[in-house]
Structures are given as structure tokens and as C-alpha cells.
Amino acid sequence: MIKFFNTFSGRIEPFNPIVPKEVKLYTCGPTVYTYAHIGNFRAYIFEDLLKRFLLFMGNKVIHVMNITDVDDKTIKAANAEKVSLQQYTKKYIEAFFQDINTLNIAEADYYPRATEHIPDMVRIIKGLLKKRYAYEKDDSIYFDISKFPEYGKLSKIDLKELRSGQRLESDEYEKENACDFALWKNKKEEEPFWKTEIGAGRPGWHIECSAMSSKYLGHTFDIHCGGVDNIFPHHENEIAQSEAYSGKKFVIYWLHCHHLIVNGEKMSKSKGNQFILRDLLDKNFDGRAIRFLLLSTHYRKILNFTFEALDQAQASLQRIKDFIYELKNRPFKEGKNKDIPKLIEEMKQKFISGLSHDLNISVSLTALFELIKKANILISQGKVFRKDAENLIRFIRSINNVLAILPEEEQEDISPKIRDKIEARENARAEKKYKRADQIRKELLEQGILLEDTKDGVRWKIIKIKTQN
Ligand SMILES: [Zn+2]
After folding, report:
1. Were both Cys, which of 141, 206, 218, 333 would link to 184 (CB 3.0–4.6 Å)?
2. 454 contact partners, CB below 8 Å, separation of at least 6
3. Residue 163: pLDDT band with limits 50, 70, 90
4. Distance (Å, rounded) from C-alpha 382 to C-alpha 449?
5. What distance in angstroms lies between residue 243's CA and the mean position of ligand 1's atoms?
6. How many angstroms separate the CA atoms of 115 and 203, rounded?
7. CA of residue 206 to ligand 1 center, whole Å
């Protein structure tokens, strides 16, 4: 049974999606006013781990991640550079997709952009006005939190000091400032605006997520994630808007990822300890190692980022890679050790039980390294055979579908020379020079590379030990 800590109830609960085996997941995406920093990526990697684990356990996952391309921050930044909002955000949207690719974060099914969903937001705001959850003031529209008795249940905020009738226009504010928040902001000088039925202006940040989540996932869906920073006011406001509008429960499970700090200190630009992914890549750290570090601390604990920890992550990753290299390239004898399937099964259960318990990654990673340690001892004793080695590789690959920390198979194995040869053979075949193609095939075979022609193109297999140099 899978269990998650639900921020809403404050408890660990069994996880049961509304439709069995089909999980609807919404994760708050980037505000594209600058490059995402490693704290942001910690949250995205936690969400990726969650999603990959749900998939691994046989669920279908429909994942939506929004792109906030209009809000206070993006507008301010675009104005500072004197370019249009669209021109400004384009660069950071592209950078975001590059970065998630570097970190091997699986793509969402939908990446809706706020600026492309203004009519969906307007529809909800109109509905809220009609139901009198919202009111107009100086051409802006606000949500009246006193009309929504559930307000504060997610963030456990004390509403005794609720300043009813007071309004806030800014997208982000502290708990002490809880009061009516802006759904729609009136047209201002030097701000982009949309002409709509509710007036000329632009949306507040919170309504974006309410509109885009319900559009792709329906009024009620299974899991909503974000960083702990999002709990108040962003997610609290999302609940208020969505539930007031639809009359239905908005989200069943709220999962939030904790902060990332650097060398024990809060990350901040002024301290110079706020890293973006590019900073780390420039220092020659590998994307997979960064991913490994960011996922290896439980998501509800503070992650203390240090370069020593990143070195360690790189070393741990190398241990897994070395192990696979050994399994692939050692001349194992034919045969089978019946203890290996038992060991694999035991570690698989441990791996699954760790992640099943509120994504307890430490337990799962311990299982992986325990397997490597035990298998290495068996290898040194000559108790691992060819079939066992294959089974071990298959197992690690299968759990790598969850962890996604190993390089693509192709990348780690063949040299550029061999790759060129395979390509030369492909070209010869395309030119119908079959004799030449066959000749190359033979040469590759002599070097231990077996080619297989499949309907998806040519695949290769290493059948001989590669000399290490
Ligand atoms: Zn959001």
C-alpha cells in the first residue's frame, strides 16, 4: 500500500486515486522571470520521483505543470529590460525545458501557459462574481475570504485576526497579511492587459493554477504538489477559488517539498549562494549527479546543499555505473546461482516499501547499495554467472526507471569509433551496398559488437569484454 503525508490533513494517509490506477497530478511550474534555481529543481525532482514511482507501481499518470508567464515578477522583469512580456519569458521557458532535460525529469503531459488560458480564468472569475465570492473594487476583482469558511485549512492559519474587507493586490504575501486577494487586476500603465468581459486587465497569479488544473484534470483531482512556500498564500487561494466556483472538493492529496539551503544557510542572491543549474554544470558537475543529490534527501526534510555532498553523490553514482560495467563486461561463466533471484527480490521489496512509505528514498537507496555490496562479494567469490549478471542489470535498469540517475544505455557503452562504424553500415545499407554493409557488420562482430536490425532501426549488443583503457 502506498502512503503519503497529506499537508491538508497533517497525516500520513493511504493513497487511493479517485479512478483506480489512474492518477491525476498537478504540479506548480516555474514563473519564467529568471532561471530556475536548485531549490526549484529540488521540488521538480521530488515531483518527478513521485510520478515515476506511481508509474512503476502500475498506475497511469496524467501530469499537468503550468508555466507562469504573466504575474507581478515577469511583468516587472520585462519592463526593466524594456521588452514585451512574451519576448522576455521566451528565453526562460526555453532554459527551463533544457534544464529539466539535463536533470532527466520526465515530461509532463501538459505544460499550459497562463497567457494562453485567460478565457478560462475569466470564466471562473465571472462565476465567483455571480456567486458573490468575489467583488469588484476600483476595476479590480477580489476574492472575499470571509465568504469561504474553509479558508486557512491547508496552511492552518489563524483567522482570528482576519482583516475582513482589506485587500491585497500583490501575488505573494505573508500569512500575517491574509486578506482579500486579487483575482483580476485592473489595467495599469506599462502592464500587459487583456480586454475581457470582466474588464481590461490581467489575472492574479493564483487564479492561473485554478483555471489550468481544472481545464486538464477536472474540478477534483488526486494530487497537487509544490514547495512549502506555495502552501500560503498560493495553494490556500487555489482551494478557495476552485471550491467556491465548482462546489466540489478541489484536491484529495496535497504534497509539499521542503526548502533547500546551501551550506546551512538560506539561499539568497545577495549572499551569492543561490545556484542555478548552469552554475553547477559550469563547474563540471554532471546533471545526473545533481539529480541524485537532489532526490536523495527525503522531500519533507530540509536539504542542505554543499559541494562535498555533490561530490559524494557523484561518487555514489559512479559506484552504480562501475557495478553495471562489471556485470556487462566480466567474462562470467555459464550458469545460474539460485540465491541471486532471491537477493534481487528481497531488495526489490525493500526498494518498493521505502518509496511506498511517503517516498522514503533513503530506504530505497540503501536497498540498492546493499544489493551492489552483496553482489560484489558474490562476484569476487566466483558465485555469479552470466544469467545472474543479466538479471542484476535488468533489475537495476528497472529501478532506474524510478530514479532516472543512470546515463542512457547507448551513451555509456560504445566508443565514437564504433558509433561511426555503425553509421557507415547504415549508410551502406541505405545505398543498397549490401556487401560493404555485411563487411562492416563482420568487423564489428570481431570487436564484440553484435548488430540487430529491428523495425525501430539498428540495435547493438556488446558480446565481448571491452578492454579498459
Ligand atoms: Zn500554482
Report:
1. 141
2. none
3. low
4. 25
5. 15
6. 9
7. 6
- CB within 8 A of 241, min separation 6: which ones? 124, 128, 143, 183, 206, 207, 210
Over the stretch 197-224, which tens digit does the pLDDT of each residue have? Answer: 999 999 999 999 999 999 999 999 999 9
Prediction pTM value? 0.87
Which string of DSSP letters, residue by residue, matches 17-51?
A: -SBTTEEEEEE---BTTS--BHHHHHHHHHHHHHH
> Cα of 251 to ligand 1 centre, how many Å?
13
Judged by DSSP in three states, 228 sits in helix
72 alpha carbon – ligand 1 mean position (Å): 14
Query: CB 119: neighbour CB atoms within 10 A?
Result: 11
If you measure from the C-alpha of residue 257 to the centroid of ligand 1, how many angstroms do you get, rounded to a whole number?
Answer: 14
Q: Examine the pLDDT at 408 and tell me if it is beyond 80.
A: no
**Beta partners for 137?**
140
21-38 tens-digit pLDDT: 999 999 999 999 999 999
Closest CA to 405 of 283, 296, 312, 305: 296
- Cell 482583516 belongs to residue: 163
Q: How far does residue 122's CA lie from ligand 1's centre (Å)?
A: 17
Residue 400 C-alpha cell reads as 532506474
In single-letter form, the type of residue at position 355 comes to L
CA of 29 to the centre of ligand 1 (A): 7
Q: Cell numbers 516499501 correspond to what residue? A: 353
Q: Which residues of 354-392 are buried (b: 16+ CB within 10 A; e: fewer)?
A: bbbbbbbbebbbebbeebbeebbebbeeeebbeebbebb
